[in-house]
Write a structure and sequence with these properties.
The relative contact order is 0.16. This protein has eleven helices and no strands. The chain is mostly helical.
Length: 192
């Protein structure tokens, strides 16, 4: 799953949210540098990623993209799934998406002194353009994947991924709808 799903699945605990958000930037023993609740958030992030990466429904989405996008297919699927979460946000949260994302950026400002430098740099762009809010629009997904494409040194064609989203929209929607409740159940069984 991508950023929005990780945040949503963190629940109401700020430190778990912070840990879950920075999870990709914390490697190995670096985990021990953080407070226990942030460590739990990092562990939650890893658990979500493992569950997602090994799920048969997610694999169907990846296979659809693999021929053209090769090993970038999992990254693209993660972003597509965030699109469906954002688009149907009112089904998941009583807090409007715009308010939720703005609250998240405020929370992260409180932790700026302890989060990895790479997260700080990314957050400045993320908040300026409110990536999370704009995931609900195909244009927002296109901007996000095009930006990733430019930051990756290898040929990846991620800038063309929104075309695949439009072509197979119902398939991806159906797979997200099948997968996400199972992920929510998995997270509810994770000891926070």
């Amino acid at each position: 799953m991508n950023f929005l799903a990780h945040l949503y699945l963190s629940g109401d605990d700020e430190e778990i949210l912070v840990g879950n958000f920075i999870g990709d930037f914390v490697k190995g023993a670096q985990l021990e540098q953080y407070a226990s609740r942030i460590q739990k958030g990092i562990r939650l992030h890893r658990s979500i990623d493992h569950f997602t990466d090994t799920h048969d429904t997610v694999l169907q989405s990846k296979i659809r993209l693999r021929e053209k996008f090769r090993h970038y297919a999992p990254v693209i699927v993660d972003v597509f799934y965030d699109h469906f979460l954002a688009k149907d946000w009112a089904s998941f949260s009583k807090i409007p998406l715009k308010q939720y994302t703005e609250n998240f950026y405020q929370v992260m400002k409180k932790y700026v002194d302890i989060i990895p430098k790479g997260v700080t740099n990314m957050l400045s762009y993320m908040s300026r353009d409110n990536w999370l809010y704009n995931y609900q629009f195909i244009e927002g997904i296109d901007r996000s994947l095009t930006g990733m494409s430019k930051r990756t040194k290898y040929e990846n064609k991620m800038d063309e991924a929104s075309i695949a989203l439009k072509e197979h929209y119902q398939d991806f929607q159906s797979e997200f709808d099948q997968f996400f409740p199972e992920l929510q159940l998995h997270v509810s069984n994770f000891e926070k």
